[in-house]
Structure formats: structure tokens, C-alpha cells
Write a structure and sequence with these properties.
Number of helices: 10
CATH topology of the largest domain: Spore Coat Polysaccharide Biosynthesis Protein SpsA, Chain A
Largest sheet: 9 strands, mixed
CATH class of the largest domain: Alpha Beta
Strand content: 25-35%
Number of strands: 13
Order of helices and strands: EEEHEHHHEHHEEHEEEEHHEEH
Low-confidence stretches: none
Mean pLDDT: 93
Radius of gyration: 19 Å
CATH architecture of the largest domain: Alpha-Beta Complex
Distance between the termini: 37 Å
Shape: globular
Helix content: 25-40%
């Protein structure tokens, strides 16, 4: 059973400046709803954490950098604050916070510091000594996906096909801002990934990488053998291509057409996520 996830959250988030100068982009607010229909404002990473927890994940490796202490503080129980809420008669909010803290306490969260920004590839590699040979889920820390059924589908495909990687993809209108996959259909309505390119100027397909993947430990060797690209960084997309070049099987898990998957890293995308998260709870 795959119960471990790596969440990179060390990037500078410059495309959302200046709010991200002091506050991590993974902590930007979005809307969420309680079971009794109350709309809350939650940071994105809390939504990601709860979705993963509710999907069965209990071990979390969160990659952070300087200035990301807000993330660590938010995912650390603070019972004095709950007592303060109760003293003020805010029992509903105290119980909401208590529910989050119970999930945190049932989880193992390892904080890994990335001291130098060298891309998502090296950030992922930092977890190698902790994970060893264990397979794991990779979930981008700036990715808003309100539904959780895609996780079950991806894990089922990985369990059935036993590839070195199962890559989340979604068909989009303009894939130039994403990693892009070229696919080959194989038996049982499964798609093999034969090529991935990071942000191509002339994409060969409309299949964008979502930022959610299942990896076997072979990805660590692939990262080590991937040359740095733009800005001297090693992108995870390039490391997936290295994995393919090393003759490892890489399978695609396609999200449904109407499933929501938004990288909040640009103002336009963040607005789209903010609007969807509110309007879907009206």
C-alpha cells in the first residue's frame, strides 16, 4: 500500500508577487465547506493535506525553504488557541480546528529544508534517504484539486500495471505553460508515456502533466542523471523523461474532462481557483 506523499513547497512563488514575498504561495486562501454547510477560508496546503489524509495517506514529507515557517506552524497543533476560542464562546470554530488537529496527530509529518533553489527534481531527491525503496505519491504544493477520486484511479493503475511511474495528465486547451506528454495507447485502455517536455513552445499534444504522480524509487536515480535546464534548475518533467530514456515504463493516468485541476501559480489561475472554490459551495 502506498501511504507516503512528497509535497514540494519550497519555491519562491514569484509569479504571485508581492503577496508571496513573506507568505508562501502554498498558503494562499481558498474556500472550503464544512459538513454542516458552513463556508470556511482555508490555505491551499491545508486543503491538499486533508484531501490526501481522507484518501488514506498518513506519511508526509513536506519540502520547505527559508521563509516557509508559516506552513510548519499551521500544520502544528496549537491547543492554547482552541482554549482561547472556547473562552470566547466560539465552539464551532474550536471544533473545526480540533478536527484538523486530530488528522495531523494521526499523521507522520517530516519537514525537509531545501537550502538552495535548484528545481523540483532536487527537492524531491531530498526525501530519498527517508523513503529508501518505498514507492510514493508526489503532489505539487501549489495544485488545487477539490475532488479526490483521481487519487484512487491513479493508485489502482499503478498497482495493476506496476510501472516505474504513473503520471497524472489532463487534456487542456493551451498546454504551453505545463509539462506536456506524448502518449501511446496500449491494451486495456491504458496509455504509455513515450515523451514529456517541460513548457514547449510548440506542444505536440494537449496532454498536460497535472503535478500528481506515483513513483517507484527509480525516480531518484533518474533525477541524479538529469542535466539542469533553464535557470540552472532540474525540472521533474525532465527527470521523468530521463526515466523513460533509461527504459523504465511510465504510464499515464488521465483525469476526467470535467475534473478540476488548477495550478495556482499565476494570478489568472489563482483567481480561477478562488472563484471555483467559492461558487462550488454556494
Amino acid at each position: 500500500m502506498i501511504d507516503t506523499v512528497i509535497i514540494p513547497a519550497a519555491g519562491l512563488g514569484t509569479r504571485l508577487f508581492t503577496v508571496t514575498k513573506e507568505s508562501p504561495k502554498e498558503m494562499v486562501p481558498l474556500f472550503s465547506m464544512t459538513t454542516n454547510g458552513k463556508i470556511l477560508v482555508k490555505p491551499l496546503l491545508e486543503i491538499i493535506f486533508e484531501n490526501l489524509f481522507d484518501s488514506g495517506f498518513r506519511n508526509f514529507c513536506i519540502i520547505v525553504g527559508r521563509g516557509k515557517e508559516t506552513i510548519e506552524n499551521h500544520l502544528s497543533p496549537h491547543y492554547d488557541f482552541i482554549d482561547l476560542l472556547k473562552k470566547k464562546g466560539e465552539y464551532e470554530y474550536a471544533n473545526i480546528l480540533l478536527g484538523i488537529y486530530k488528522k495531523i496527530e494521526k499523521s507522520s509529518i517530516v519537514w525537509i529544508r531545501q537550502h538552495i533553489q535548484k528545481g523540483i527534481g532536487p527537492a524531491t531527491l531530498l526525501a530519498e534517504k527517508i523513503l529508501g525503496d518505498k514507492p510514493f505519491l508526489f503532489h505539487a504544493g501549489d495544485l488545487y484539486i477539490p475532488q479526490t477520486n483521481y487519487l484512487k484511479q491513479m493508485l489502482n493503475i499503478h498497482r495493476k500495471m506496476k510501472p516505474s511511474a504513473t503520471i497524472g495528465i489532463k487534456e487542456v486547451d493551451d498546454p504551453r505553460q505545463y509539462g506536456v506528454a506524448t502518449l501511446k495507447k496500449i491494451p486495456n485502455n491504458i496509455y504509455q508515456v513515450i515523451r514529456v517536455v517541460e513548457k514547449p513552445k510548440k506542444p505536440l499534444t494537449n496532454f498536460a502533466l497535472t503535478g500528481v504522480n506515483v513513483f517507484e524509487s527509480a525516480i531518484f536515480d533518474a533525477i541524479k542523471n538529469t542535466k539542469s535546464g533553464v535557470k540552472g534548475e532540474i525540472q521533474l518533467t525532465d527527470s521523468i523523461q530521463t526515466l523513460i530514456n533509461m527504459n523504465h515504463d511510465v504510464i499515464a493516468s488521465k483525469m476526467k474532462v470535467h475534473d478540476v485541476c488548477i495550478d495556482i501559480g499565476t494570478p489568472r489561475n489563482y483567481f480561477a481557483a478562488l472563484s471555483y472554490s467559492f461558487n462550488s459551495h454556494k
